[in-house]
Amino acid sequence: MDMMTMNLTEFKKAQQAINTVLIPIGMIEAHGPHCALGTDVLIPREFVRRLEGKVGDKVLMAPEITYGHSWGLASFEGTIDVSADAFLNYVLEICKGFAVNGFANIILLNGHGGNNASLDIVTEKLADLSVRTLTVNWFIDYRDDIQTIAPDPGHAGEDETSLVLAINENYAYTEGVGSHEIPLPKRFRFKDGGRTLYPEAFSGNAGAATSKKGEQLYEMLTELIVGDIERLWEIEQSQGGRENGIAMDS
Ligand SMILES: [Zn+2]
């Protein structure tokens, strides 16, 4: 169910029928010299398109949140960074809006690692308000599975670049891009450290990316996401079944 194109009559019907919403969350950010700046929006958007055919009758697909937080790559051209505090509160307000509209299950389909810490806090706050959430950080949660197809993943690495190529061959290139390893663990942090960790705004072996690997990744990852959505519904059942969101002033 695509919220963006729904009218109010259709939305009210959806509210009666379902209580799960999926919100894609992305970023506009430097992705090496070779990958679209909107990579972290394009990939979740493609997941949504594929999920629509599998769970679309039970999940409201919400419009995406396009801009996120990127401390690490903020100094690169093309990165439009929103502070962690502003981003966190913005996402929280949006989620509360869905909760008061009856959506007690919220899936945050995140395309960007810099958002993770903020989303952790958002989901803790939502859980305290009795809103169930599933956060999908696909590049972390399914990394072992990803490496069976793309052995050297990373930021605009083999996995992300392949996923972008599978959407449109014109949205990325691989010729002469090569690979980059992150030279330091991310737990070392210092001013403009992103320039040290990601000298060319990417990591992993982007040169090995192909659209074919991207298609294989989409097929595998979409199934893994469906499995996690079903686990969210199992948790709901174990807690006594369907609820109708929260009354925010109670
Ligand atoms: Zn990315």
Key terms:
single chain; Rossmann fold; 4-stranded parallel beta sheet; 9 helices
Order of helices and strands: HEHEHEHEHHHEHEH
**CATH superfamily, called what?**
Creatininase
Structural class: alpha/beta
Q: What fraction, in percent, of the residue positions are helical?
A: 40-55%
Count up the helices.
9
Main sheet strand line-up: 2-1-3-4
Outline, from the CA principal axes? globular
Give a written overview of the molecule:
There is one protein chain. The protein has 250 residues and is of the alpha/beta class. It has one domain: Rossmann fold (3-Layer(aba) Sandwich). The chain is built from 9 helices and 6 strands, in the order αβαβαβαβαααβαβα. The strands form 2 sheets. The chain has a 4-stranded parallel β-sheet, sandwiched between helices. Strands 5-6 form a two-stranded antiparallel sheet. Helix 2 links the parallel strand 1 and strand 2. Helix 2 crosses helix 9 and helix 3 runs parallel beside helix 4. The longest helix is centred in the C-terminal third of the chain and has 28 residues. The radius of gyration is 18 Å and the shape is globular. The chain starts with 7 loop residues before the first helix and ends in a 12-residue tail after the last helix. The mean pLDDT is 95. The site of zinc ion has 6 residues, from helix 2.
